[in-house]
Design a protein that fits this description.
By secondary structure, the protein is of the alpha+beta class. The chain folds into three domains: 7-137, Sandwich (Immunoglobulin-like), CATH 2.60.40; 154-284, Transcription Regulator spoIIAA (2-Layer Sandwich); 316-366, no CATH class. The protein is built from seven helices and 22 strands. Strands 2, 3, 6, 7, 8, 9 and 10 form a seven-stranded antiparallel sheet that branches. A three-stranded antiparallel sheet has the order 1-5-4, with no helix packed on it. A three-stranded parallel sheet has the order 11-14-17, covered by helices on one side. Strand 2 and strand 3 (42-50) form a beta hairpin. The longest helix is centred in the C-terminal third of the chain and has 14 residues, at 264-277. The two termini are 22 Å apart. 40% of the residues are buried.
Length: 367
Amino acid sequence: MPSLVADLLQRRETHFALWRPSAGGSPPVLVIGTFKAGNANTLANRKEIRLTQDGARPGLWTGAADDCGLADGIYHYWYRVEDTRPGRPAGQPILCTDPFSTTVDWRLLSPDLPEGFDKDTDRQPASVIQLRNGRLSAVDPLGETASFPSEPRQDRLPTNNHLVIYELPTTWTAARDSGFRERAVGTFKDALALVDEGFGGANFEGLAALRPGRSHLSELGVNALELLPAADSFFKRTWGYDTSHFLAPDWELGFPDGQAASTSNADLAALVASCHRHGIRFFIDVVMAFGRNEAYQWIDFDPFYVADPRATPDDPDAHTSGRGDSSQPLRDGFGSTLFRYTRELALPAYDPISGGNGKTAPNRALM
């Protein structure tokens, strides 16, 4: 059976790796340190490490974890690149989140914001990683990790033609005695309480459907849970199709009231594992048309994004898939920024999936 692991993800097990920083600019720099709580939170023990271009793989910049002079531990980091967004001065350095990060921490936003940048939209959350014996791995900010104990065989879960799907948004409401409706984020732990009889929820603890002793979704006859976009979003305390960090579970969905830090990786894994134990398949909704404050908007805008379809109607990526549909000839980003899919690279470059060099549209590989 062929491996489903992308080459870049395998490299990230031993190297800090940045794919496709804008050509011709200064070498990207890893800015890394440890989280220090305070008012405000800061990056302690800061180090800056210049990445090296891989001579055999155009577009790939790396730094071996073993060569960074770091002790084993949990680290917060960004990459410093030159801002490539349209309308911005060329060459402006900015810190951005690792686009392949599996954990982001919105408690710590990028420092060193250049003059003229917007502190509300240009500051990006730190990526989080664990280093142990020269290897890098996904971890929540305080050390919790994802695990899948006693996973059932996939052929024991319901087949596609026998599914009863429950679609679950992450913003929930609860009616109170006064008639007021409370609106808040239902976290991964709240969703877990809909499945696991031994768990009572978090932000919505006390709702009848979440009480210990019940598996509400099983009672309904549900055998597939579809969680609306579970990837991290720029927006706070809300739900929408505005993904910012595609490989990281949403920070707030792992950060119920009363916790010191998010446990999004561990909580999402616990939800998936519980669903499987209860014979419930797990689906996620993924947004692939556009992104909001996604890192490649800073790192290498033009190969990944379309700035304004109305301003560039001759650009094939500005058009809907129908192409000839006169009623809606141009794409709509609904307030977010549209990804490219049509235009391929002019020269062969590193493919993060296969590990070889080829000519492709970068965002196809990203997605």
